Amino acid sequence: MIRGRPVLTAFGHALPWAIAIVYFYVAPYALSFGTQVMIWILFAMSLDLALGYAGILTLGHAGFFGLGAYAAGLFTIHVSPDPILGHLAAVALAALFGAITGAMILHTSGVTFLMLTLAIVSMLSEYANQARGLTGGDDGLQGIRLDPIFGVFEFNIFGKTAYVYAAVVLFGWFLFAWRIVHSTFGRSVDGIRQNPRRMRAIGTPVWWRLLAIYTISAAMAGSAGALSAHSTRFVGLSVLGLLTSGIVTVALILGGTRRLYGAFVGATTYFVVQDWSAKISPFFWEFVVGGMLIVTVLLLDGGLLDLGPAAVRLRDRWRAGREGK
Amino acid sequence: MLSFALTVLLDGISYGMILFLISVGLTVTMGLMRVVNLAHGAFAMIGGYVAGYLTQQGGNFYLAVIGGAAAAAMLGAIAEMTIYRPLYRRGELSQVLLTVGIVFVATGAVTGIFGAFPYPVVFPAYLTRPIDIGFREYPAYRLFLIAVGATIAAVLWLVLDGSTYGARLRAAVDNPAMARAVGIDVNLLFTGTFIIGCALAGLGGAIGAGILSLEPAYALKYIVLFLVVVIVGGEGSFGGSFVAAMALGIIDTLGKYFVPEAAAYLLYAAVFVLLLWRPRGLLPPKSAA
Predict the structure, then answer these.
(1) pLDDT digits over A99-145, tens only?
(2) What is the chain A residue with the closest CA to B267?
(3) Which of A51, A110, A297 sits opposite B101 (nearest CB)?
(4) Which residue of A321, B37, B184, B205 has the lowest C-beta tally within 10 Å?
(5) Which residue of B has its CA nearest to A253?
(6) Do residues A83 and A230 make contact, with C-beta atoms less than 8 angstroms apart?
(7) What's the per-residue H, E or C state across A42-90?
């Protein structure tokens, strides 16, 4: 949360969207980069609900992202080229998959849960690899042709439509997520993360709450996947890889969990750093991102958004030390 | 038919031996100190790359393998003392994140130093030839893997079962608090065992390069397999790891012979069902009961 004076708070809330609008006009040549960043913000935000708020330790979120991407792509090819319908189908499928797998594994926790999520996403990935006829295997899913949104806004190579489409979807999900985490439901999920036993003792249906937040999170991740498939008109096998889960976790943690805005800061930082360091040398970004992750975990518990408060604490301690003399 | 069954068995066992060698250190990290260590594959990778470099420079194969294991052990010692120690008190999330960070750094470093392409270990000529084992010709390399794996497993078993060190280690896995109370220096024990585990991973990465080929993605690609061995066997259970590694090796080989198109996801499906049925693995150590 952004604290401080109301004007500053309002400014803080408006800032990401203002940046998105300004970016649209000042960087028309790099809109696909902006679209990609927004897709990953949405993906990281979905992980924030499950991992940040509910404390569900998962490395399987790539499964929902990938499922959404393949579903959106296949729907477009085989059923209807309407992007909205395809998007809704992808979200519904990801939510359904989240509900089913969640119902099977959410009674476990910790490492066992982690392994179960890894097993699920590995199964999906192997299936997508084998089912060449359906998914294109490791060549990826090609030939996605989209109708204009509402029959008006055409997808073109400059990516203007894709950019606005991603921004609108992200904004919608953000409002939804904001509503959820500030509801009593959201508070109870936060409580489950802190102490599931106590929440159960006061009568919270722990398993159902976890299943609900896991399903919502899966739907959001599927939506991000659908955006990815639609904006690039391609789905590669790597969407289901462990690296995808790893990157989204990095993006969330860099920004900080349980803030929603952490996803904005983290995903943006991640892609800017990746873009910049990959220009220096193609291997360098992994090195830099890994180093950033290690430093964040060891020193900044709350991610980059914690830099400000951490600096304030340091300043206060310094002042206190000086006054003490 | 019998000869075919034996071939599948040998293939499976040699693959399982590699999985066991690499995973046995991981079961200590996860069972003894309760650290979710996703970076274990990185130590195997580094051991493999160092051995690969030394053999490509014309070095003796066995010395190169020892060099790889030593390099993995050294990096393991440094990592344990600097990065892992603050982790013991942290939650599982921090452990997952930080070790993923190590994987990224190791992958970037290996790509930077050795390049992005698969990196071969040069095996001695007599290991690359098939030899006659009575009923058919069989690759000497795989027999070599079985021999090394069986020897090390036997030594580990003797040490763990018969020495004071083994008794202390088992005690610490079963009940760390009680082990501390009776005067066992659990931290020192762990540092030592972590280093041995990294050395074995490095060794496994080096001699197993003919099966699990070395590439920068190695650390991420195979970690799921190593985790499966540890979790399915039961965290902290050495016997369990051995059984799980052998089972995994044989099942995977069988799958590749009979249902090549479904092998990979059948394996994960089996793991999925098994973990739902026995969340603590096949042979959990006593404390877990």
Answers:
(1) 999 999 999 988 889 989 999 999 999 899 888 888 888 889 988 88
(2) A123
(3) A297
(4) A321
(5) B97
(6) yes
(7) HHHHHHHHHHHHCCCCCCCHHHHHHHHHHHHHHHHHHCCCCHHHHHHHH
Q: Do B108 and A286 touch (CB under 8 A)?
A: yes
Quick check: A242 and B224 CB within 8 A?
Answer: yes
Domain borders along chain B are: 2-277
Q: Report which of A262, A210, A267, A215 is spatially closest to residue A244, judged by C-alpha positions.
A: A267
Q: What is the mean pLDDT of each run of 10 residues along chain B (289 residues)?
A: 85 94 88 84 96 94 96 94 83 86 91 90 90 84 94 91 89 86 89 92 94 91 89 86 92 85 80 85 63
Top residue of A107, A108, A112, A238 to mutate, by most chain B CBs within 10 Å, is A112
Residue B132's φ and ψ, nearest 5 degrees, are: -80, 120
A129–B264 C-beta distance less than 8 A: yes
What pLDDT digit, counting tens, does each position of A182-215 carry?
Answer: 999 999 999 999 999 999 999 999 999 999 999 9
A321 is written with which tokens?
């030390």
Q: Write the class of the CATH domain A6-322.
A: mainly alpha
- pTM of the entire predicted model: 0.89
CB–CB contact A115 B275 (8 Å)? yes
Q: Which tokens in the block code for residue B139?
A: 């690759």
Q: Which of A115, A123, A253 sits opposite B265 (nearest CB)?
A: A123
Calpha distance B207→B64 (Å, rounded): 10
Comparing C-alpha atoms, which of B33, B36, B61 is closest to residue B194? Answer: B33
- The reply to whether CATH 1.20.1250 applies to domain B2-277 is no
